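[Amino acid chain]
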Amino acid sequence: MGRLAKSLLLGLMLASTSCPGRSDRPVKTRVARTTAGFRASALALVSEQAQARIAAEEAEAEEAEAEPRDGPPEPASDLPAPTVAEPKSPPVADDDTGDDPASQARIDREQREASLDAPRLASIAHETWIYEHPKRKSRRIGYLRAGAVVSRAEKPASFAGCKGGFYKIEPRGYVCLGKTASLDPFHPVVEATKTRARRDGLPYDYVMGRVPGPTFYTRLPSAREQSEAEPDLGYFKKRLKGIERDPDFVAMPEPGPVPASLLYGRGLPGLADDRPRGTELVVGRAKPRSGFALLSQFEHDGRRFGLTTDLVTIPLDRTRWVKPSAFHGATLSDELTLPMAFVMKKHATSFVRDEDGRMKPGDKLDFRASFGLTGKSERGYVETKDGTWLRSADLRVIESMSRPPTWAREGRRWIDVSILQQALVAYEGLKPVYVTLVSTGADGLQDPKKTHSTIQGVFLIHTKHVSITMDGDEVGDQFDLRDVPFVQYFTEGYALHAAYWHDDFGTPRSHGCVNLAPTDAAWLFNWTTPDVPPAWHGALSLRHGTLVYTHP
């Protein structure tokens, strides 16, 4: 099995995954107990039997669709000659309504009513798999997340390996009606997870756990139950007063209403692929360095609580509200293109020429502000597109490529990541369309198998998640970050993704993945392939992903 096939096999597991750590310790099969239940780590060892089964399933699916197998001219791996396919434009329907607004309004109304009456299918689990064909052995092409509701065919297309039947869904694929899916769009899990992930900035509101971290409750606890479950609560509330006086303290937004699923003492429904819930009130406590995505936040008996995507409620005074990074890169065009400069000094200023030709200090510059450059430079200064001058020593300049790679053919989308520059440029053929700063592996250009360094080479994005949990249990470096946003795996455990727990973009920081600011990660996620349809939470493609080139 080739390197990309193995990478996709790990991606298929859709588990609590992490950017790769050092591999000088044995990788072990681990089942992580979380409030979401037991989910196998994607870094677990994969048996030879499982690999053989996946290979056989892929071969069967490939034979059915007879895909071409052309690929990039210079892959730096043992890829089976993959091909990058651009998303196709949707067909344009003939419009015979002319300019009659009444006719168009009638058609729009009928379409809305038809949509409401159309049969629907809902996800009631962390992952509800979508198959390419209506049979269990077909290739998986994506998944839905709890609360997603999609249009479906009225009757099953097949019962091959699925007792409830495979239903065709929009815009493509088939879902097995079983444990993880329901035909009831008002299922209790759907009602509890109405908040859908956003596709710009951060997909949810996020919090980071304090020490000690929050307790996981299945319903809203009484004051007595909180004291019993949190013996240090009295002391913690006293300490909290000092925390709130800290200049860096981030106040929470105004609370929303208590979710209907928690009213009248009701307990939250469990997700279908979690451990079954009984009558227990507490189902766990946060690990050190934990992060959580919230579906909502609200007041209960004078204390702020949040409902997480794992359908537990947590006391938010034991967390820190995440203020998203304001940093973002620049969209490029014919008027604004490379070279681009980012300000990397916190007290830098611009300069203007006076009448004598000397450089006179101008406005103060924002840290990491971006500027288009004309290409002119003199005596340690560079000229910007708006006619001002910047000190070269204050900048990180991203130049246009000096020698185009062979895969940069016209129209092909690909991503260039420079480890030394801590920069990412998105290209369409030879044309740069986006540039930003990133955080690659903390150990720079060292061996990624032994250190926290980013792997180098040419790869294809094969698995994309709107969000997914990443965790690690290395002694001294434990973490449990739920719903890491806009994750795009391109080989093994290496991915492009947003980071909500730091704002050091432009500086090496990660365990090996390529960290992006939320706005940049969302832009890139929506631009790359495989595409993830609006109602989906993830998509997979062995051969049609955007090319990623990581290098010094």
Observations:
- The helical segments are 3-12, 48-65, 101-117, 188-192, 223-229, 233-244, 518-527.
- Residues 106 and 326 are 43 Å apart (CA to CA).
- Confidence is low (pLDDT under 50) at residues 3-8, 12-16, 22-99.
- The chain has four domains: 1-86+405-552, 103-192, 205-321, 339-399.
